[in-house]
Amino acid sequence: MTDSRATVYIETYGCQMNVSDTELMLGKLAAEGYAPVDGPEGADVILLNTCAIRDHAEQRVIGRLGELKRAMKPGSVVGVTGCMAQRLGPQLLTQASHVSMVVGPDGYRALPQLVARARAGSRSVETSFDLEEHYEDFAPQRLDRVRAWIPVQRGCDYKCTYCIVPFTRGPERSRALADAVREAEQVVADGISEVTLLGQTVNSYHDGTHDFADLLRAVGAVPGLRRLRFTSPHPNDFSDRVIAAMAEVPTVCEHVHLPLQSGSSAVLKRMLRRYTREEYLACVARLRAAIPGLAITTDVIVGFPGETEADFVETLEVVQEVGFDDAFTFKFSPRDGTPATRLPADLTVPDEVASERLNRLIAVVRAGSRQRNLGLLGQRREVLVEKAARRGDLMQARSRDFKTVLVSGDEQSLGRYLTVELTGTTGSTFTGTPVAERQALPVAR
Ligand code: SAH
Ligand code: SF4
Ligand code: F3S
Fold it and tell me: Which of 62, 244, 284, 349 is the S-S candidate for 303 at Cβ 3.0 to 4.6 Å?
């Protein structure tokens, strides 16, 4: 057993899956007697749980490692976990002399031993994939009091040509439905009523017996659970069964994050996204026909090799045609070892061109969501109070259709459901005025 006064600090980069992994690591280390602290100063164990999706994400971690070298107290140990650890492995030990552990996403079971070894002065790298690993027996130490993340699938089999994730997270595997349901029941028993199911292509979930439709129905029916979300689905995995489950399970929220990446079929083909512009639009139409009021958000990459001005205009057209509620927009970042880096050099889109396209895309996305949001003023929404807003006296709440709504309130209102009227919008977020203290549980449709 470790010294019970030892402390651990984990800093998280990247996607929700990494946030969830941080919760698992904190839980594992807490079980070994480590107390979590919220800053690196004075922590005995400092872990950076990293992301490798774009070069920028990695540069931030490199910068942070430099800062930590100066700030860490004598005797504390630093580890790098997550996708960048998996990608760079032993290279990180060579590059950063103060790093003593490099642990990939499938290596967290060994964390207590690796930490103990590091504290005894030796350095180690653990980057093997484990296709059975789901960490089911870990008790996650949840960082959010209102919403819970439940990983149901790890890894990715899609292999989009720009993407590092299949290299950093390994092959896709799904966790047993009964385990996911058990975790959802635990979450509700702990007083949390909103669950987000996580996976890289979460709707391709299959545990050997059950598909994603079964999973939505089973988790969605857990007594006391009020909101069920999932991220990120792949457009090709929206079977009729999955869409029917989304439409029929009252707890499933009216929002889907549906990564587009590009609106040009030629670019999509080079990305190996496995759908055309028309197929993407058909997927949107099927979802909208089944789920009234569905909000759709997306991810778009500009400047992928070979993207012409005409291809880019097609992306703008799809963005306008769909009318996304919001979009995350990225400039293509070449990742070592991915197939996109082997495309002919003359297809490279110059950085100035990519930057200019990014700005135009952002302007179109903003104008579209602003217009949509203005149209929602005066409507009512049930919102869940999530956290304190940046402006002191307000709380940040969220509607089922994923709109951020600022409401007056204090810490006491955290985790409460309110019905509000949308009274103002900045174009992206709303202000809301409560019209009833609490709404009844959703009724079966
Ligand atoms: N599994 C999710 C995406 C995970 S990565 C999915 O398939 O939807 C999140 C987003 O980062 C992607 O949707 C993509 O838009 C972006 N992205 C991934 N690799 C990138 C790269 N090399 N350069 C720029 N953006 C990238
Ligand atoms: Fe990456 Fe594509 Fe897998 Fe998403 S589906 S994680 S973009 S390879
Ligand atoms: Fe980043 Fe890994 Fe997530 S690369 S986006 S932390 S899966």
Answer: 349
Ligand 2 neighbours by CB, cut-off 6 Å: 156, 158-160, 163, 165-166, 200-201, 234
In this predicted structure, the answer to whether residue 438 has a pLDDT above a threshold of 70 is no
C-alpha–C-alpha distance, residues 176 and 62, integer Å: 37
Model confidence at 153: pLDDT above 50: yes
Give me the torsion for CA of 348, 155, 296, 192, rounded to 10°: -140
- pLDDT given for residue 437 in this prediction: 56
Q: How confident is the model at residue 391 (pLDDT cuts 50, 70, 90)?
A: confident
- Rounded to the nearest angstrom, the distance between the alpha carbon of 329 and the centre of ligand 1 is 10
Q: Ligand 3 centre and the CA of 19: distance in Å?
A: 10
- pLDDT averaged over the chain? 95
Domain boundaries 380-438, corresponding CATH code: 2.40.50.140
Which atom belonging to ligand 3 lies closest to the Cα atom of 17? 3
Strand partners, 258: none
Q: How confident is the model at residue 440 (pLDDT cuts 50, 70, 90)?
A: low
Domain extent listing, the chain: 7-126, 147-374, 380-438
For residue 83 the two structure tokens come to 């996708």
Pocket test for ligand 3, best of 165, 200, 328, 333 (most atoms within 8 A of CB): 165
Question: CB-based burial of residue 56 (10 Å sphere; 0-12 exposed, 13-18 middle, 19+ buried)?
Answer: exposed
Distance 368 CA to ligand 2 centre (A): 26
* 250-285 pLDDT per residue, tens: 999 999 999 999 999 999 999 999 999 999 999 999
What CATH class has 147-374? alpha beta
Residues 6 or more apart whose CB falls under 8 angstroms from that of 341 comprise 334, 335
Q: Which two tokens stand for residue 375?
A: 């149209």
Q: How many angstroms separate the first and last alpha carbons of the chain?
A: 52
* Span from the CA of 160 to the centroid of ligand 2 (angstroms): 5
Residue nearest to atom 1 of ligand 2 (CA): 163
Give me the pLDDT at residue 166, please.
Answer: 97
> Which atom of ligand 1 lies at the shortest distance from residue 53's CA?
19
CA distance 215 to 163: 27
Task: Specify the 3-state DSSP secondary structure of 118.
Answer: helix
CATH class entry, domain 7-126:
alpha beta
